[in-house]
UniProtKB/TrEMBL annotation:
It holds the Pfam family Abhydrolase_3. GO terms for molecular function: hydrolase activity. It comes from the Bacteria. This is Esterase. Keywords: Hydrolase. The keyword RNA-binding does not apply. The keyword Amino-acid biosynthesis does not apply. Residues 23-43 are annotated as: Disordered. Residues 74-270 form the Alpha/beta hydrolase fold-3 domain.
C-alpha cells in the first residue's frame, strides 16, 4: 500500500524545515529541564487522570483511565537520549491509556550530556521492581526510550517480574550505527542524521563505549527476554538493525521477536498526525489489551 498523502507531505515538510537539526548535539547542554518542559499538555489532562510523584528524585507521572483494567505499563520516551518528552509522546500515551484501560507510568529521566547509561539503567531497574509484579506490567518505549527499555529488560535480575508485553517503537539496536544498510537509507531519512545520533549515542554510552552490551542490544544477550514486538518504518535509518536483531534472537530460548514493518514510514511515525499512525496505534493497543 502506498503511503498516504499526509505522510508524504509531512516527510517533505520535515526535509524543508531541516528537522534533522533538532538532534544537533550542539543544542544540548547540562542545564536541567524545567517542569513546564516535560509536563503533560492540558489536552491530555482532559482525557486521563494524572498524578505526579518522584522516584529517586526523578519526576514520575502516572496516567490512569476512567475505569482501570488492573494492568499497567512503564513507558520510556524517545528523543535521542538528549531531548525532553514532547506533546506527541503525551498524546500517544494518553491514547493508549484510553484504548487499553492500562495505567501508564512515565518517568522523566535525566538526559545527556549530563548523564550516561550508568545513571539511568540502575534507576529504571529499581523503578521496575517497585511497580511490577503485583499486576501485569507492559514495557513500552519509543526511539531511544525503546532502546533503554530493552537495556532494562536485559538488566533485570534473575527472579524479577517479566513484562507481560514488550513493545518497542522505532528502537536503536546498535549505538555504533555501523550497519552499511543504515548509511544507504540515511539520505532518505528526513528526521535522523547519522553523525548527530552517533554523537549523542556515544555520549549516552559514556566510558563503556557505544558497542557495549550494556547499551547496544545487538551485543547483549538475547535469550529469555519474552515476547517483543518491534515497530519500524523503511524510511528510518534504524530499520536494518531491527531485522538484524530479530535474526540474532531467532533461535534464542525464551525470546520471540516480531517485526511489524510499515513501508515508507519515517522514524517514530506513530507519534505523528497521519493516517498510518492511527493504524499503528490501534495495533499497539491490541497488543497491550
Amino acid at each position: 500500500m502506498s503511503p498516504s498523502l499526509q505522510s508524504r507531505l509531512l516527510a517533505g515538510a520535515m526535509t524543508l524545515m531541516r528537522a534533522r537539526e533538532q538532534f544537533n548535539p550542539k543544542k544540548f547542554t547540562k542545564e536541567p529541564s524545567t517542569a513546564a518542559q516535560y509536563s503533560p499538555p492540558p489536552s491530555v489532562e482532559k482525557r486521563v487522570t494524572i498524578t505526579r510523584s518522584t522516584f529517586r528524585d526523578w519526576p514520575v507521572f502516572t496516567l490512569a483511565p476512567e475505569t482501570p483494567s488492573g494492568k499497567q505499563a512503564l513507558y520510556l520516551h524517545g528523543g535521542a537520549w538528549a531531548a525532553e518528552i514532547q506533546a506527541g509522546h503525551w498524546n500517544l500515551i494518553a491514547d493508549l491509556v484510553v484504548r487499553t484501560s492500562r495505567t501508564f507510568v512515565v518517568p522523566i529521566f535525566p538526559l545527556v550530556p549530563a548523564v550516561t547509561h550508568r545513571d539511568i539503567t540502575p534507576v529504571l531497574t529499581d523503578l521496575w521492581g517497585a511497580i511490577a509484579g503485583e499486576v501485569p506490567t507492559a514495557l513500552v518505549g519509543d526511539s531511544a526510550g525503546a532502546t533503554m527499555a530493552l537495556n532494562l529488560l536485559v538488566a533485570l535480575p534473575e527472579g524479577a517480574p517479566a513484562p507481560d508485553v514488550t513493545v518497542l517503537l522505532s528502537p536503536t539496536f546498535d549505538l555504533t550505527f555501523a550497519n552499511p544498510e543504515s548509511a544507504r537509507i540515511a539520505p532518505r531519512d528526513p528526521l535522523l542524521k547519522l553523525d548527530y545520533i552517533r554523537a549523542l549515542a556515544a555520549s549516552y554510552a559514556g566510558p563503556d563505549g557505544p558497542d557495549s552490551e550494556l547499551v547496544s542490544p545487538v551485543h547483549a544477550r538475547v535469550d529469555h527476554l519474552g515476547a517483543i514486538t518491534v515497530f519500524t518504518g523503511t524510511r528510518d535509518l534504524l530499520n536494518p538493525d531491527a531485522h538484524r536483531y530479530a535474526d540474532l534472537a531467532r533461535d534464542a530460548p525464551g525470546t520471540q521477536v516480531t517485526i511489524e514493518e510499515t513501508a515508507d514510514m519515517v522514524h517514530d511515525w506513530m507519534l505523528m498526525p497521519i493516517p498510518e499512525a492511527k493504524t499503528t496505534r490501534a495495533h499497539i493497543a491490541r497488543l497491550l489489551r
